[in-house]
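Sanity check

After download, print the first record. It should look like this:
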Amino acid sequence: MEATRLNKYLSEQGICSRREADRLIEAGKVMIDGRPAGMGEKVTGDETIICDGKPVGKAAGGKKIRPVLLVVNKPRGVVCTTSDKDRAPNVLDLIQYPTRVYPVGRLDKDSEGLLLMTNQGELANQIIHAGNLHEKEYLVTVDQPFNAAFIKRMREGVELKELGVTTRPCQVEATGPKSFRIILTQGLNRQIRRMCGELGYRVVTLKRIRIMNIHLGKLNTGDFRKATPKELEELERQLELAREAREAEQEASGEDVLD
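Expected structure tokens:
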């Protein structure tokens, strides 16, 4: 069997995303044949692999994992990370789902709303992929009334000095004197809070209501549901279009197309 990078292998086995796999490897929580795995290491799947105390692949008896995609309404005060650094309630403990799932991207502790959770590593990577320009929609309230200039600046892009970047142009519309709707196609760390902060405003509430074609709808806070077949079909269609567009762009620029 052809060797593949360990983080990709764990992702394909439905254990976690590649990014989370790298964190677990770095923390010494992944073992290969009884020794700690190294960053960037490759495996064939014939090894005895233990991730965070649980057997993977051959070590788990080669059980086939049933794909899962959950739509969760994350409450404020709940964290998405699976690390031990934050003592706050964890979304995994919140939903208590019988199959191992993990968050697709992040929604910070002070934010609420739509969070996707899955056991499909490649699906998670495709949704998170920054180059795919997938839409994420939020409802935001700030601490003071804003004017048309604020909306214009948010739409055109805000320089985030702390990160050394300017945000991509985005869709923003006022929904009240101190509230607005914003649709982003990137996911910088605490992006909306940083954008508002640069313009002199503090975010009071932030709720994500859509990721691509999947809407939060009337799902109660703290509850979750499975994505519908119709949602999954449209999600895959959009992901396929994004893959084709990215590959065409890479081919036109002479870059190698990576998996």
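If your output differs, re-run the checksum step. Summary of this record's structure: The longest helix spans residues 229-253.
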